[in-house]
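Input.
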Amino acid sequence: MADRLPSDHEAVETRRVEVASVGRTDRPRIELPADLDVAAGDVIECVLDGEQYHARVETTLDGEPMLQHAADNRRLAREGDGENRLVEWFADSDCAIGGSVHLDVVTAGYTYGLRTPGSRVVYTATDSPDDSLASIADDLGE
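Output.
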């Protein structure tokens, strides 16, 4: 059974991360801490102010991990296709390029939340799937 965890719970680690732009556009990218338990190409659950989506971890030109696209499901996130929910979330927030947002580590390596500073979110924390089951699911999704 999944646990419900508020963003201010002691089990949720909160980090402040920078919002940069994708190239010279006004589209946001979230620069992730280098010591986060993710690697380029990983597809993670990405909760945006309480709404669950999926995102593929990409890298900046300097090789640092970042997010620039969030999608409705794992397949769309893996392919970088579908509506970009990260752009929608950013446009609806009061955050700005060059500013920061809060990154909540809900389940390390699997579920991360982004929220505007000062907001409180309740997450549904689940265990990450078994690696062999995840790879089978990825194979079926191709």
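The two ends are 29 Å apart (CA to CA).
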